[in-house]
Amino acid sequence: MATETTDSMTKVEQALARTDEAAARLRAVATRLVTEHGGTLPQLLAVRLEASTNRTFVGLQAHTEAESRQWAQALGVTLETSDSTPDEHGFYRHFSAEFSVDDVMVRISSAEWFPAARAAEAVSA
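RE: above sequence
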């Protein structure tokens, strides 16, 4: 039993060390992005952070497509566009770019809702 406990405790300690390292990288990247660009670019709607043994992620959510494009341009990435599946109420158009900074995945994003009344107009645009 003592061996199992020791092995489990070693795994926990290793996982915590990896998470601490990921959190430090995450903090450095998030701080750098906002410090370098936050004063000259539109305010963000939300910032999402994730640091675990499997993933380090910074999500920068802008209010609008135009604001997402400003952030993407400042960070030297291309914004992609995709639509959700339309239903009788309308659909979302998503704008996003994903890239890596110092082994941290970064996503710039925003979304626009098109109600059914405007859906045909949006699809043709």
